[in-house]
Amino acid sequence: MKHYDVAILGAGPAGLAAARVATGTVVLIDDNPQPGGQIWRGAPQIPVPAHVDFLPQTKVFDAQPGFTLQTVPHGPIRAAKLILATGARELFFPFPGWTEPNVFGAGGLQALVKSGKPIQNQRVLIAGSGPLLLAVAATLKKAGANIVGIAEQAPLGRIVPFLLRYPAKLPQAIALRASLLGVPYWTNTWVTRFSNGTATLNNGRTLNIDHLATGFGLVPNTEIAQLLGCRLDDGFVVVDSHGQTTVPGVYCAGEPTGIGGLDKALAEGAGQPYNGAFVRDLAQAFALNPALYDLAEPATLICRCETVTKAECQPYREWRDAKLQTRCGMGACQGRLCGPITQRLFGWTPSSVRPPLVPVPARYLATAQTPPAPESGRSENAPPAHR
Amino acid sequence: MTDVVIVGAGIVGAACAYELAQAGATVELLDPNIPGSGATAAGMGHLVDLDDDLSRYSVNLWHQLAPQLPKQAEFWNCGTLWIAANDAEMEEARRKPGVELLDAKQLYEAEPHLRPGLAGGAVAKGDAVVYAPVATRWLLEQAKAKVTRRAVTSLDEIQAGAVICATGAMTAKLLPELPIRPRKGHLAITDRYPGLVQHQLVELGYMTSAQGESNESVAFNVQPRPTGQLLIGSSRQYNVETTEIDPPILDRMLTRAFELLPVLRDCNVIRTWTGFRASTPDKIPLIGHLRGNLYLATGHEGLGVTTSLGTAKILAAEILRRPSPLPPAPYRPERFQT
Ligand SMILES: Cc1cc2nc3c(=O)[nH]c(=O)nc-3n(C[C@H](O)[C@H](O)[C@H](O)COP(=O)(O)OP(=O)(O)OC[C@H]3O[C@@H](n4cnc5c(N)ncnc54)[C@H](O)[C@@H]3O)c2cc1C
Ligand SMILES: Cc1cc2nc3c(=O)[nH]c(=O)nc-3n(C[C@H](O)[C@H](O)[C@H](O)COP(=O)(O)OP(=O)(O)OC[C@H]3O[C@@H](n4cnc5c(N)ncnc54)[C@H](O)[C@@H]3O)c2cc1C
Q: Which of A327, B15, B18, B201 has its Cβ near the most Cβ atoms within 10 Å?
């Protein structure tokens, strides 16, 4: 088994900033083919330092005290110190039509376009909440998409005071807006239904579009911190002024400590604390309107993996009960998608995290104690799983 | 006063509630947890005839109930294929009553992914699988039983015509004089691979693991789910009370599974978990009167989903003073009283 002084999990801005200052033997692990994380996507503005072993396309599915990271395809990796820079994932929110094929996660569509998906002259509506919508719109517009509008559910009356409180962010916001000249930005607006290429807005307007990109905010990836027993507060990893979690030797930087974007990720990755008020104010400015919670209809899917509808979930007061009776959250994603949804819709507490964090070939679980025999890594002899 | 109070709303308590309600009794269940969320949610739900009266009778009862069960109970008559690795095990297979014997060629026709070099097998066509948490809730609904979320601390305080203790692996906490020990098991479930496996696959050596007293053992036991997923078992451990996955035992259990079904090595596992069986020294459940108004329906080891229905029939007959469908003596609690 390989031993390192430091293992950094996640090669986004936070992880790369941490790699730059890390000393001793260092390994940087990420499940994507290239470094950069969500925002830089393969074009990182901080290169992977020469002294760092970079393991791309590597999934961490378990973490044990001491510390041992269980990975696919490299098996177990040991490190004296861990830096968790695991970023965030998008919050999907159910409304009638959200599971139709041309509905995308905003960040997901952005990533597809960055990796070459043609979008030229296609009519795209971007809907949801938060600054990410503007970033996505800018990427898509640059790639030639016809952005018919950006529907932001938050009211203007909450966004403007937020921007005025953080004048340092203004130039960034203005530049983004300028790149989106001619694209309408509707506040207090959301999609109530999508069907056969027609999106209906809450003000009654209908729009004919090719793609609907939705993003309702970000959910921090805190699963590894949870496995290691780090304390969470309101869903975020608690860290001290040095970025250390409540477990000695485990540090955390970037989105898992509070959704704050690039500047926060860079600062925390470099070991500097970031202004906590910004994180709170950002969350408040773009807090979801409870009206969104009523959009899903009885037949709307809540759990996509196991095709469980809202009506099937509604009789249950606890996730465990619903899970046992309806299979909600029992599928391949293990509630990563529907957990944050059911928490908001039904007030269910997400179930505890356990390994494997992601689906892994069984042979990796049978070598948890002993390193796996060297293999090509990709000998997937099993037929492809069927969804 | 309620006629019958049942402590523990697992599948055994639920089956007793169903049976007694059919006879006209009003039934209440007490359980601090969600019905069916104990061993009942952790187990495999394999309905298996192990060549004894109670399991054979119970599998028949499941077949009678099956047409009424909701679709989500996923009752599936997939049969059990007992695998014989060598000639000695093939002899053992021949001694099993009511099975269809397979030679090596027929074995690989039935299950092409098994490792080469096996001697043959025996198919028990009557065996099936069921998704036990849904069956539990259905039994409770049919019984129109009241379920109260409450942990019982003393069985003697409960006012009722009859009190049934159906607390599974936790029974010794309430009745320390009973020889019931928790026996931990691990399971893993894969993503969907429809058609990869057709029968519940069990090695003949499974019975040695289940009925032996070894502190730690594993045996090959793989179940195809109606979803196309594969449920991989099984392990048995005494003297562990924590629910955490134990990596070395998971390792042993999976390694054994790969030995017989190599294709599993590359199948994606999406979840692993553990559960506790209620183990008695003779591996036979405790069914019947204990003292005063107190009755037992516990100690079902790794077979309680199967034997829940038979257990309920035997116990209801005793409480209602009706003729018992099976001779009740082997299950009586007094066999452990000195
Ligand atoms: C889909 C999406 C698109 C976004 N687009 C933008 C944008 O255009 N502009 C913007 O300003 N902000 C964007 N954001 C916000 C983004 O979170 C932050 O701006 C910034 O990228 C945060 O940096 P980070 O280092 O904390 O996390 P990330 O950049 O998210 O990096 C974390 C990395 O860790 C990896 N990882 C996580 N868990 C594991 C594991 N178990 N095993 C292996 N690797 C793992 C992830 O794959 C990822 O590469 C986006 C967020 C998302 C979710
Ligand atoms: C890994 C594994 C695999 C298995 N595979 C199979 C199989 O394939 N086929 C099969 O037939 N069987 C199988 N079993 C066995 C089967 O699951 C159990 O025998 C059966 O579920 C027992 O049901 P029960 O109702 O007795 O126990 P449980 O389901 O555990 O129910 C007991 C209930 O009592 C409650 N309780 C406990 N203490 C108190 C108290 N003080 N007050 C109130 N309530 C209390 C608990 O909360 C619980 O809900 C397996 C078991 C395991 C662990």
A: B15
